[in-house]
């Protein structure tokens, strides 16, 4: 009996140890780049405690800000997570595909956030998908060695040199949104075509250029489709949308849009601003300003005398100027090609007006003899329209002698330009 009891106790202890070992062995570990997912279908989900995990044939792994996804083979990742997940990096040696409705964010101190050795397919097989991928690298947010293909969802990439760097075509379709932002370089760079088709949105923003294609076209095709390039340097070597060897195209109701932020010029009422003549970046895709309809917000700017002028009655600060062309008669030799109501839109934001008007000040001085105030000095001051002129600020300096300022014949006023001379008369008594 004692022997049987000892045997049972020993067996129970062994069983308990085995069970404990099994539980401990199955506990999920944090996923790092040392684990090759080997192309097995992979799913990201959220547990009841809010923890995001990655599971595939190799097991279950915890995802956190230090995690890295690595696969030596083409891999599909299904985003079924209800809580957005943030990881450090993704490196797919072959193709990388995302499906599902979840959100994944990649934030790294390394050079590249997401690096893809072949095709990058974002919601390619889930038309009108709503999943989201964001990625940020110190140099490049998203680098793809073949094509970027999308049919839904959104991808946003940011880096100092390039937001998105793609060595082949970029092809978003339907409701997909692709955004590339660069703090110092080009938002979206592609060796071949940059497309936006059947309602897709492509947006590139950079200090040097918004979007650039090296050997092919930048083309938006289909109603609702748009490609926007935003540049922070109107004097850059590249346009906001820059197709090196081919064309800028907008077909069938699509829009190609360029924006130059804080261009540094001002709009006057008497010196027409010819953007094509003054800026190579603008002239590359716009052959003639007269082909465009011009407007501004606030309303003031118009086209006249081969350039832009402003309505002196509507001075403005930090305004936006807009030029639009929808034209079926585009010449074949023009860089920008528009067909079937395709639109080329050019914006200039952060612009000021600079309407000046001469203000004549006449200074009369009585030298303490009699009642006459002979004219002592006359000056002309150029004052900006719309500004508040404080009359006493334009007194002349008589501090070299004893004097008494008797005042002026006007009170402070807002300067307007209505064709009439603005004259202010000042009166002093001084020992001169």
Strand content of the residues, in percent?
A: over 45%
Compute the separation of the termini in Å: 133 Å
Question: How would you describe the oligomerization state of the chains in this entry?
Answer: single chain
Shape: elongated
Low-pLDDT stretches are 1-25
Write the topology of this structure:
Elements: H1 2-26, E1 29-30, E2 42-46, E3 52-56, E4 59-62, E5 68-71, E6 75-79, E7 85-87, E8 89-92, E9 96-100, E10 103-107, E11 112-116, E12 120-122, E13 132-136, E14 140-144, E15 148-150, E16 154-159, E17 162-166, E18 170-172, E19 177-182, E20 186-190, E21 194-197, E22 201-206, E23 209-213, E24 218-221, E25 226-231, E26 241-243, E27 248-251, E28 255-261, E29 266-267, H2 275-278, H3 280-285, E30 293-297, E31 301-304, E32 307-310, E33 319-325, E34 336-339, E35 343-353, E36 356-366, E37 375-384, E38 388-389, E39 403-408, E40 413-414, E41 422-430
Parallel strand pairs: 1-4, 2-6, 5-8, 6-9, 7-10, 8-11, 9-12, 10-13, 11-14, 12-15, 13-16, 14-17, 15-18, 16-19, 17-20, 19-22, 20-23, 21-24, 22-25, 23-26, 24-27, 25-28, 27-34, 28-35, 29-35, 36-41
Antiparallel strand pairs: 2-3, 3-4, 30-33, 31-32, 33-35, 36-37, 38-40, 39-41
């Amino acid at each position: 009996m004692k022997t049987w009891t000892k045997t049972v106790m020993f067996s129970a202890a062994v069983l308990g140890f085995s069970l404990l070992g099994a539980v401990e062995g199955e506990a999920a570990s944090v996923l790092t780049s040392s684990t090759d997912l080997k192309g097995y279908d992979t799913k990201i989900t959220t547990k009841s405690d809010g923890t995001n995990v990655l599971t595939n044939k190799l097991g279950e792994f915890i995802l956190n800000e230090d995690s890295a996804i690595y696969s030596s083979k083409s891999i599909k990742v299904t985003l079924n997570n209800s809580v957005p997940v943030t990881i450090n990096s993704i490196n797919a040696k072959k193709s990388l595909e995302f499906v599902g409705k979840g959100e994944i964010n990649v934030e790294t101190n390394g050079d590249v956030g997401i690096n893809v050795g072949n095709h990058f397919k974002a919601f390619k097989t889930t038309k009108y998908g709503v999943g989201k991928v964001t990625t940020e690298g110190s140099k490049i947010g998203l680098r793809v060695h073949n094509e970027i293909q999308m049919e839904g969802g959104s991808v946003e990439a940011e880096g100092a040199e390039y937001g998105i760097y793609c060595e082949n075509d970029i092809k978003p379709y339907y409701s997909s949104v692709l955004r590339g932002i660069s703090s110092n370089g080009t938002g979206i760079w592609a060796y071949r075509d940059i497309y936006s088709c059947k309602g897709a949105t492509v947006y590139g923003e950079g200090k040097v250029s918004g979007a650039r294609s090296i050997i092919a076209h930048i083309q938006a095709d289909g109603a609702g489709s748009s490609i926007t390039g935003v540049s922070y340097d109107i004097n850059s070597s590249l346009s906001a949308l820059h197709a090196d060897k081919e064309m800028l195209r907008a077909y069938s109701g699509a829009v190609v849009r360029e924006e130059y932020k804080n261009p540094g010029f001002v709009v006057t009422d008497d010196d027409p601003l010819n953007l094509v003549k003054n800026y190579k970046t603008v002239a590359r895709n716009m052959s003639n300003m007269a082909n465009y309809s011009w407007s501004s917000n606030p309303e003031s700017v118009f086209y006249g005398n081969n350039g832009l002028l402003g309505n002196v009655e509507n001075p403005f600060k930090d305004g936006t100027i807009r030029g639009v062309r929808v034209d079926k008669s585009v010449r074949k030799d023009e860089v920008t090609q528009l067909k079937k109501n395709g639109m080329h839109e050019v914006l200039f934001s952060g612009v000021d007006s600079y309407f000046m008007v001469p203000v004549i000040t006449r200074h009369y001085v009585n030298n303490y003899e009699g009642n006459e105030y002979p004219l002592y000095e006359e000056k002309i001051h150029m004052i900006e329209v719309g500004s508040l002129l404080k009359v006493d600020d334009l007194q002349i300096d008589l501090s070299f002698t004893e004097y008494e300022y008797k005042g002026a014949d006007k009170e402070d006023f807002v300067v307007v330009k209505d064709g009439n001379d603005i004259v202010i008369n000042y009166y002093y008594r001084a020992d001169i």
